[in-house]
Request: fold
Amino acid sequence: MTKQWGLKSTVGLALALALTTGVTAQQTSYKFGLAMPLTGGQATYGNDQVKAAEWAVDEINKKGGINGKKLEMIVLDTQADPQVGIQAVNRMISVDKVAVFVTAWSGVVKAVAPIANDNKVVELSVGANSPDISQLGDYVYTTFPLADVDIRAVANYSAKDMGKKKAAVLFINNETGIGSATVYRDTFTKAGGQVVAYEAYDQKATDFTGPLLKIRAANPEIIHLQGLVAESPQVIAQARQLGITVPITSYSGIYNQKLIEQLGAAAENVIATSLAPGVEDSPLVKDYVDRWVKDVGRAPNGLPYTQYLYDAPALIAAVFTSLDKKGITPTGENFRKEMLAIKSFDLPLTGKITFSEDHTVNKPVYLVEVKNGKWTKKAVVGQ
Amino acid sequence: MFDLAVVSQILWTSFATSSYFVLFAVAFALVLKVNKVFNFAQAGVMTCGFYAAYVGVRMLNLPGYAGFMLGIAGGVAMSFVLEYFGFAVLRQRKASAMFVFIFTLIASQFIAYAVMMIFGTWPTTIFASMFWPVTLVGGIAVSAWDMPAITATVTVLAALWAFLKYSRNGQFMLAVADNADLAELYGIQKDRILMMSMLLAGVIVSIGMFLYGTRAQVQASAATELMLFAVAATILGGIGNIWGAAIAAVVLGVVQNSSILFIPSAWQGFLLFAFLFFAIVLFPSGFRLPERRNTLKRTVVAPQALTDGKGH
Amino acid sequence: MDYVFTILILIGLFVILASSFDLVIGHCGLISIAHPIFYAIGAYISAMLSKQSGMPIPLSILCGGVGALLASALVAVPALRVSGDYLLIASIGFQLGLIELAKHFHEIGGAGGLTNIPSFLIKDFGRESYVVLVLVLAAATVLFIRWLTQGPYGRMMTAMRDDELAFSMLGRNAIWVKVAVFAIGSGIAGIAGGLYAHYFRFLEPDQFGLLQSSAVLTMVVVGGMRTTMGPVIGAIVLQLMPQIITFFNLPPSILGPLQGLLFTGLVLFFMFVRPQGLLPAADLWAGRNRDGDAGHSRKEARS
Reply:
């Protein structure tokens, strides 16, 4: 008897909850979804990005929202896992009936693309950089430059502006690592340089002596590292310990204050790319970072990504405002049309963005370098 | 690439970094041998050991050695909880091996989530800096971390060996490992000994995590991956053979890192699984160290007829 | 509605997985947690066959099941020759090793995953048809396993689980029984994998790792081992619970870990307070040092 009751009540309760939420959903506010990793290995980034988006939504609502109506953000966990992401997005579309949602992490972005396309809901990929994102369908757009942009910039800069003739590439053996390493190698070679070492390391590795020694033996003038936040500092530490003193470039993953704390003098001559303006480039960014330090006690993890996530609600709000003024219902289809009609947006923390036919965006790449224990601006490429 | 300097550097660094793996493997092997449990919850103990040290050094601003002690305390505390509230209860209920195994798996996940909630998921080290100054010894870069790590590991192993061989409790432990019920008949308190071995394992892995966490970043999920290595070493070393596990851990670590001289770097990670696969298929009982013969040495030449009959 | 459909499909798939897993660890007493890898093998084989060589999907799903079955025999035969405990390590090694290997092969998508898997039924008959398909197959699986375990084969497995030595003395080959059951359970998981692949149309090696092993294990343990409806209830409860928690509007920063804590906490609670699961298999806690009890065969007929 008890087991029957247990089964029935559980299922019943669940369905009741699901239906109720759908019925009581209001239509007097504008909603969009945010599907981010709140748990799991990527949650450190995910949580900070969500916080940035939350701040943006608050700011927008403080300034009057969407013509007086509230802008609401529905946040769900994806764990950076495709299947969990699919359920989260399905929920947002079926239950919360959003017209647009923001998500990140290439695996999730790719997995939910069919859902966005089938339901005609706009998917904004903010932060994922896999090159095939531009080919995921009519309703999938990225506001973040895809993989090639920053790697190409740093490769060209190293070859042409820094005059390096021989480069080594060290990368983590996963999709992003392999993809970006290939882009770097091709670009550097095309710019007239020579890639003298091209080594991968395993995702679980804790000791990088082997690949580093191979690289050292090849005598490069500059090394490009494409790893994850988890082990990149160690790789750099070991490289310095093995006597490798040449500059090391990497992508924005290592661009944080912690790196300098962790490596001390070993962090000198480390160059990172950033796809968003830094504190020296824009007073708004400076205020933003100051607010982080004041309210949260530290700088955000993955600062440039959080900047993009701060701007995403601004972009969505702009489109909603336009739709509201014209009295058009905010369906996914209409959102997309309006977004493409407006085409160019001026966003607070990342500057201007223009949506193009091929679903890609182009942004200037900021290069920053550790000099005398501080991150300093080195150059801006592709303005 | 077969340059002497390169090879010696790889050998040295991989030897030094195998230190923490040895500790993880030995602890796992110890619990397997004495408690007869595949203690996957060791990942949880490792995580607690690390974060206890982290709290001590980074949040309470204690000096290194105090953080070290706190780390050990953390690991031991979690071991105690696991044994007292977990394994002992399941033992009392005569739970099946499957059940106990499921418990260890779920317990380690639970601990990981709890830690995630308290500390977040940002990878972090025990000391703010992970850079250790380097001195060149005959062309090999020896970092200031290497020697203390090796010394610590050797000390722990020596202490464990002495404990098992010479102390009463150590011998009781071996007795329980051999045949727990028989040991009880001889008056050895089985539960006390099993708790002791868990606590001992807790101490060992906490030291291991302190070593690891002063050199590399750790997050809640890191321990599970480190465990993989420990389990592989235990299998290769032979189930029930603590020292075999230790040696296997060193060999695995060195071979895995040296493999770059022979195979493309991308395949290094897969090597571990390849080893495990071959070990399971070809050497199910592990590589056995030659057994000591306990036979009496004959100092008198026995007549032919007698020796044939005895035949040893 | 898609939201509800997806949940129903996932419930159906996990019912298949949990039931087949219960066959392996519950009825046959094999200690293995590598079930998800056979799920993965079925999924990838079906996806690749239908995508690359245009094989009709029902056939490719079947091939996926057969592939998983053969792979499981590959693992079980050498491992079981040593001992039952060894199967645990061998299967974990196989699971993690294969995932690692899969990440190296770009032909099947590598670490980034396999995309654009052909879809099945939905274009012609809509999503509801797929839901029906999965739920029907789930029911069929449950019934099949019930038939298998209630009949003479079930009694054989129970005897083997009870006392393997006596079993082999009666002239039965314990190893072949174990291999056969392991293969059947894994083959069923492979078919479920194919069903998954053609609905979600995206596969990634990492999603079939230890986390999913844990999830399936939880479903069987919480639901109740060696009962017909136990794994079913386990699958339903453990699929719905996380979804329900998300409706409570908790702050995102603690939502995630809290969910995990509740999940694993629930399992631990069950393990200690009600170890037989929601639906008890009467023989589980008979006070002997191994699962099994002299009087169980009478009691088990009840469930």
Observations:
- Residues 282-303 of chain C have pLDDT under 50 and may be disordered.
- Chain C touches chain B through 46 residues (CB under 8 Å).
